[in-house]
Amino acid sequence: MGLRLLHHFTLFTSATMPGAHLKRIKDCWSIDVPRLAFSYKPLLHAVFAISALHLFKANPNEASLPDIHCIYLEQALREHRLCIGGMTPQTADAVCFTSILLLVGEFATLQDRPVASYKSVNEWMHLVRGSVSVFDAALEIIRRNTHPANIWCITETFPIPLRTNSDAGAFSFLLPTVPDDKDDETALEAYRGAVAHINATWLAMEAKEHPQISCRRLMPTFSPCRHHYATYGGLETLHTNTLWLFNEFFRPSGNT
């Protein structure tokens, strides 16, 4: 099964990763990441996990795939937590890609969650918050290393930031009409900025922006508004609408 999952990831899942419409990023996911995974077990298991998830989307009759996805996901999470504490210049690159795959995989499963429950959203929020410090530590190690890292391929090709003013547009209904006394002004400003970012992303989608570019904008890992998502919890309504955008545009095309 491991060989099948690696084969599927290399040929198919890698092509659905955010930004993979660019050959440089596609090659990174299909060639460089599998190579890194052979020397960093958490990354290998994260590759297997997201590949099983993607394979199940294409073959829903294979009833064993969800369990296989969960098994490899649990292994990746457990091993990743253990390895982060001893991160070295040799593993920092793989740590970044492992974190990305865990985030993308978790984000992809949110489209199937019960609409009335925010448990999965909150779990994803916790994963994002934890990943921010991991990325910061890993990138700091990578910057001090003279050996070129593959992760720069991802960070240096992020789409040009959208022009997000304070306009919430079609999502103005998300803004609080009467501020709560308990609301912190900094948190409210972050919330408004995130809503404006969603509106700008929606407008870009309406203007027929490439779906892979829009997908990268919706993932917080290396986006300009990642700290809006990572620092402030409880933005369930905001995330519900982010996921609605994701479902609206990416479910038919089969993107991870």
- How far the N terminus sits from the C terminus, by CA atoms, comes to 20 Å
Mean pLDDT across the residues is: 80
Write down the overall geometry: globular
Strand element count: 0
Q: Number of helical runs? A: 11
Major sheet description: none
The class by helix and strand makeup works out as: mainly alpha
Strand content: under 5%
Protein name: C6 zinc finger domain protein
GO molecular function, one term: DNA-binding transcription factor activity, RNA polymerase II-specific
Compact description:
The chain is mostly helical and 256 residues long. 65% of the residues lie in helices and 0% in strands. It is built from eleven helices and no strands.
